[in-house]
Amino acid sequence: MNGKLLVIGFGPGSFEHITERAREALQESDVIIGYKTYVDLIAGLLTGQQIVSTGMTEEVSRAQEAVKLAEQGKKVAVISSGDSGVYGMAGLVYEVLIEKGWKRETGVEVEVVPGISAINSCASLLGAPVMHDACTISLSDHLTPWSIIEKRIEAAAAADFVVALYNPKSGRRTRQIVEAQRILLQHRSPQTPVGLVKSAYRDRQEVTITNLQDMLEHDIGMLTTVVIGNSSTFLYEDLMITPRGYQRKYTLGKTEQPLKPHQRLQKEAEPWALEQTIAIKQEQKPQAVSSRDIAEQALLAVTGGEYKNEKSILTQAVLSIFEVAVSPGVANKTFTPAQMMAIAEAAGEEGTITYTPDHYVKLQVPTDNPQTLVEKLTARGLVLSPIGEVATVKACDFCDGEKKDSIPYAEALQENLGSMELPKELKIGFNGCAMACYGAVQEDIGIVYRKGAFDLFLGGKTIGRNAHPGQLVAEGIPMDQLVNVVETIVHEYKETGYPNERFFKFFKRKKTLQGFQHEDVTPKLQIEPAACGD
Ligand code: SAH
After folding, report:
1. pLDDT tens for each residue of 441-496
2. Whether this model's pTM surpasses 0.90
3. For residue 43, what is the DSSP state?
4. Ligand 1 atom at minimum distance from 197 CA
5. Minimum CA distance residue for ligand 1 atom 17
């Protein structure tokens, strides 16, 4: 009769977190071998199996005993907490077998039954701290030279991994965690969130949220796992959360502006992806390859590949992209050379300056400190507007200020509505004379100044093959009423528009807006809808 070795990870400790297969495997076994505390933890699941429990440091003899019993034809369960392949018994069992010349074909059967490891069980109690690239490091230097552990901490810290420290401290090993903290602090902010979980899913469970600087002021022991956040990990309601992306896009007045799900996987939204980086280099667009890249390549060439500028790669990886629309003014359309210089300086080597289909200059800069940038640009008289689902006032140049009567109204709209967050981006076109040469009537809301009063157009469809102008809803709105009328309409859109609902659809659905009746101005053409790129 052939015996079998079942190397079982029983998870953090509670019966709900043991896998079905692990339960069955325990039942199937004739003998259970494990560290006494662990055998006690699963005692409730046993049905009369022979128990061989040993002290914690007797792993080797435990594995030898298990192999011996299996070779005698017994089904032997070797138990580990968490996963038996993570600082558990699985490797050791194989090592003992290998030493005896074991072969898969002819030797005893081995089954490794996976379990929930501490990094996962502890993470679940802390919030969602792992989420992104993470590693486990055991601080136990009984079997591993400290010089190697130290190197691994250093590497993980530098590469911005989330780190789960196993075996952080014991009665005799107290300095390792102090050293680990010192190394981590060389690469990460003292405020980096840290979670301490003791005895996850066991009776004496304790969960503590602290930070890298203060973590040693709390109780850390043999039963603790220390989870150290990466540079993006944040705290919310005492939960540690690591966002999925390194990159966040954000704009004026908003802390964060994540991409919509459908935009996420578009290439343009991922300029940092490997393929994009290669594509840029292959096309040899000199403007897209920064001088730093060139310098780094040159250094690589002269050092024969020795040179590694980890710092620059890292700062790129963790910085957020701040994006903002820049213009010389609401009515003024002329950039001065000094303003152009200021924009170029703000973009620097890593940023981009884009001229958009909406006739504005978009500035995108990797930075976590947009304030300085904003101050420098506004000091040059530039007007900055947020990008995204906000209201934008697109005024004409009022014939370079010759037809200036209505400028204050455009400025008042910019002041009151510009940047307001809305269900979808909303363009308010404002033209200073009946020529309407800046195309105000093509916008979501169009305003045309004529004979001392305003004409109002609502619900233009600004893009697509069935684009159409807005519907003329009112002629001759008195000057002092204009701002109020437009504001009321925009507020109604803000309050009652569905998320992502464009203004023309909103008008159509509502049928009336502030007393203005909707009429269908869609061209009577049958046009198949087409997605981008079709
Ligand atoms: N095989 C186990 C790890 C064994 S090493 C696993 O996969 O989880 C022992 C270390 O694991 C402990 O020092 C502690 O850091 C961690 N650990 C194991 N179980 C834990 C639990 N329930 N709560 C917190 N940490 C735990």
Report:
1. 999 999 999 989 999 999 999 888 889 999 999 999 999 999 999 999 999 999 99
2. no
3. G
4. 24
5. 118
The residue type found at 250 is Y
Sorted by sequence, the CB contacts under 8 Å of residue 376 that are 6+ apart come out as: 342, 345, 346
Residues within a 6 A CB radius of ligand 1: 12-13, 80-83, 86-88, 117-118, 121-122, 166-167, 197, 199-202, 222-225
Q: Which of 133, 137, 131, 128 has its CA nearest to residue 161?
A: 133
Query: Of 480, 491, 487, 485, which is closest to residue 516 (Cα–Cα)?
Result: 485
pLDDT band at 294 (very low <50, low <70, confident <90, very high): low
User: Rounded mean pLDDT of 209-231?
Assistant: 96
**Protein residue whose Cα sits closest to atom 9 of ligand 1:** 167
Q: Give nearest CA residue, ligand 1 atom 6.
A: 82
Q: What is the pLDDT of residues 364-378, one digit of tens each?
A: 998 877 888 999 999
Alpha-carbon distance of 204 to 183, in angstroms, equals: 30
What's the token pair of residue 154?
Answer: 């250093």
Length of the chain: 534
Average pLDDT, rounded, for the chain = 87
Place of tokens 């002819």: 106
| Cα dihedral 57, 59, 61, 66 sign | positive
Identity of the amino acid at 402: E
d(CA 451, CA 434): 9
